[in-house]
Amino acid sequence: MTATGGIVAGVERVFSEDEANQLLPELTELLTRLAETKAQLEAGTGNAGLRAASNGSAAAAAGDSRAERAFNDLIGEIEALGVVVRDADSGLVDFASTRDSEPIYLCWRLGEERVGYWHPRDTGFAGRQPI
User: Fold this and answer.
1) What is the pLDDT of residues 74-112, one digit of tens each?
2) In 46-131, which residue ranges form alpha helices assigned H by DSSP?
């Protein structure tokens, strides 16, 4: 089964607030690793001097490739849970949910104690409101 944007095999996982909160320990670990991997990628691509010094070696390219694979694997692991990654830097994620029978996203950011916000599907972080 493949996962994309919280949709698993064509079926979107819909979370209750409790279900989303139960995933936070696992998400905290995954999103922390994701941020670390992203920082490694940025350090590798932002360090042109080091790459030039390696004369474009296969070892330098392989390092970037491993980090890219690790980053993509972590995104895939999070999305396989049914969670939508919005911003890897801040650890911002959305959980598909409903409110008054309307589709919404529950919104959580790494470091927050619990899922405490939601927003309509057609707005992003700017539309975030307390639960």
Assistant:
1) 999 999 999 999 999 999 999 999 999 999 999 999 999
2) 48-53, 58-80
Residue pair 72/91 in contact (Cβ under 8 Å)? The answer is no
Contact partners, residue 12, CB within 8 Å, separation at least 6: 6, 82, 96
Instruction: Render the burial of 2-19: b for 16+ CB within 10 Å, e for the rest.
Output: ebeebeeeeeebebebee
Assess whether pLDDT exceeds 50 at residue 54.
no
Asked if residues 14 and 96 have their Cβ atoms less than 8 Å apart, the reply is yes
Among 78, 105, 79, CA closest to 17: 105
The proportion of the chain whose per-residue pLDDT surpasses 70, expressed as a percent, equals 77
- Cα–Cα distance, 33 to 71 (Å, whole number): 9
3-state SS, residue 73: helix
